[in-house]
C-alpha cells in the first residue's frame, strides 16, 4: 500500500513538473494580426508602461504614451487580441522577415503597429515572442554560401531580434533542395547558435516529416516545430501526426521534449492526386461559419481539417509522450467561441 501511494505521488509530481513546461506555440503572420485586431475592435495603443490590471505603470519600462488607466476601453483585457493570445498562447512566432541577397534583412512586413501589439502581449502576459525568418532556397542560398554575407545576415538578424523584444529566431527555409544546401543550412544554424547564445536568443526551425533536415541541423536547434500536416489525402490525421513525431525521434535521435507537434488551423481537399491539391484550402474559421460542425467532425464541403476532438486527441498524445508542446499554423485561422480550436487545446492541457 505504501509503495503504491509513493509511486502515485512520484508520478503526480513528475506530471506536474512536466506539465509546467508543456506549451502552446502559435505562428501569427503579419497579415493576420491586423485583420484579427479589426475583427474584435482592438485599438492600437502601447500598453507596455502599465501593469496587467492597468492600476500602475511599470517602473522598469518606459511607455511612450501619456494616459492613465481610465483611458483604457472597458473590459479591454477580455476583448482584445492581446488578451486572447496572451491568455491562451505561451509562445508567439511572428511571421515573418526575409533574408536579402546582400545579407540585409527585409522587414517590410513587420510594421510598428504589429510590433506594438506583440510587445503589449509580452508585457501584460509574459508571452514569449519569437521572430520567424522565412523563404525558399532562392532567399536563403545567397546568405548561406558566402561567409561574409552570412555573417552580416546573422548580425543584422540578431540586432533586430534584440531591439524588438524577441527571445528567439525561427528559421523557416522551405526547403533545402539537396545535400549541399543541407550542409549550408547546417553551417548557418551552427554560426547562428554561436552568435546568438551569449545573448540568450534561442533557435528553432519549421521541419517537415517528408523533407527532414539532417541530424546535425536538428541537434543544433533548441526547438523543432514539426509541420505534421500537408500530407497527401487527409492531410493531417492523428495517425500521421504520431508517425511524424516518432520518425523524428527514431530516425534522427531527436529528444521528444524538443518537438512541438504541429496542428493545422485550415482544411485541405482530400485527394493528393487532384491538380488543385496545393491550392484548394479553406481556413477553419470559414469552415465553422459555413457548416454546423460537431466536435467530432473533420470533414466538410470536400475539405479535411482537424476538428475539436482531433486537436484534443493530438494534444493528449503530445502530453503523454513528453513532447515539448503543440505548434499551430496559424492562429489567425481559428474560429471564436465554442468552435475555437485554440480554446480546445488549452482546455486539454489544463
Short characterization:
With 350 residues, the chain is of the alpha/beta class. The protein contains 14 helices and 13 strands.
Protein model, in words:
The protein is α/β, with parallel strands linked by helices and 350 residues long. The chain has a domain at 22-227: Glycosidases (TIM Barrel, Alpha-Beta Barrel). Helices cover 42% and strands 19% of the residues. The protein is built from 14 helices and 13 strands. It has helices at 2-19, 30-40, 76-79, 81-88, 112-125, 137-140, 142-145, 147-163, 179-196, 215-219, 238-252, 284-290, 308-320, 341-349, and strands spanning 23-29, 91-99, 105-106, 128-135, 168-173, 202-208, 223-227, 259-264, 266-269, 281-283, 299-300, 303-304, 325-329. The strands form two sheets. An eight-stranded parallel barrel has the order 1-2-4-5-6-7-8-13, surrounded by six helices. Strand 6, helix 10 (215-219) and strand 7 (223-227) form a beta-alpha-beta unit. Helix 4 crosses helix 5 (112-125), helix 8 crosses helix 9 and helix 13 (308-320) packs parallel to helix 14. The radius of gyration is 21 Å and the shape is globular. The chain starts with a helix and ends with a helix. The relative contact order is 0.11. Mean pLDDT is 85; it is low at 1-19 and 39-78.
Amino acid at each position: 500500500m505504501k509503495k503504491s501511494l509513493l509511486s502515485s505521488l512520484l508520478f503526480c509530481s513528475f506530471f506536474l513538473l512536466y506539465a509546467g513546461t508543456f506549451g502552446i506555440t502559435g505562428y501569427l503572420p503579419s497579415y493576420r494580426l491586423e485583420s484579427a485586431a479589426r475583427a474584435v475592435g482592438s485599438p492600437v495603443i502601447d500598453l507596455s508602461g502599465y501593469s496587467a490590471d492597468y492600476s500602475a505603470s511599470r517602473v522598469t519600462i518606459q511607455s511612450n504614451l501619456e494616459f492613465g488607466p481610465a483611458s483604457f476601453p472597458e473590459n479591454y483585457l477580455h476583448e482584445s487580441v492581446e488578451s486572447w493570445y496572451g491568455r491562451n498562447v505561451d509562445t508567439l512566432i511572428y511571421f515573418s522577415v526575409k533574408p536579402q541577397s546582400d545579407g540585409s534583412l527585409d522587414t517590410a512586413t513587420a510594421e510598428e503597429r504589429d510590433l506594438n501589439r506583440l510587445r503589449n502581449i509580452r508585457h501584460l502576459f509574459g508571452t514569449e515572442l519569437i521572430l520567424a525568418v522565412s523563404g525558399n532556397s532562392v532567399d536563403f542560398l545567397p546568405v548561406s554560401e558566402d561567409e561574409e554575407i552570412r555573417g552580416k545576415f546573422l548580425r543584422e538578424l540578431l540586432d533586430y531580434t534584440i531591439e524588438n523584444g524577441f527571445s528567439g529566431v525561427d528559421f523557416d527555409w522551405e526547403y533545402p533542395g539537396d545535400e549541399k544546401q543541407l550542409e549550408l543550412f547546417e553551417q548557418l544554424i551552427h554560426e547562428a547558435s554561436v552568435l546568438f547564445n551569449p545573448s540568450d536568443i534561442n533557435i528553432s526551425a519549421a521541419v517537415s516529416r517528408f523533407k527532414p533536415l539532417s541530424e546535425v541541423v536538428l541537434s543544433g536547434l533548441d526547438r523543432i516545430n514539426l509541420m505534421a500536416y500537408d500530407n497527401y489525402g487527409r492531410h493531417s490525421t492523428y495517425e500521421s501526426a504520431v508517425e511524424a513525431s516518432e520518425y523524428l525521434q527514431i530516425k534522427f535521435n531527436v529528444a521528444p521534449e524538443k518537438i512541438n507537434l504541429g496542428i493545422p488551423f485550415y482544411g485541405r481537399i482530400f485527394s493528393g492526386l487532384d491538380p488543385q491539391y496545393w491550392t484548394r484550402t479553406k481556413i477553419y474559421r470559414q469552415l465553422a461559419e459555413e457548416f454546423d460542425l460537431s466536435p467530432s467532425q473533420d470533414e466538410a464541403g470536400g475539405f479535411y481539417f482537424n476538428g475539436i476532438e482531433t486537436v484534443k486527441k493530438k494534444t493528449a498524445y503530445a502530453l503523454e509522450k513528453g513532447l515539448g508542446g503543440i505548434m499551430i499554423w496559424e492562429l489567425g485561422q481559428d474560429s471564436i467561441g465554442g468552435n475555437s480550436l485554440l480554446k480546445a487545446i488549452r482546455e486539454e492541457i489544463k
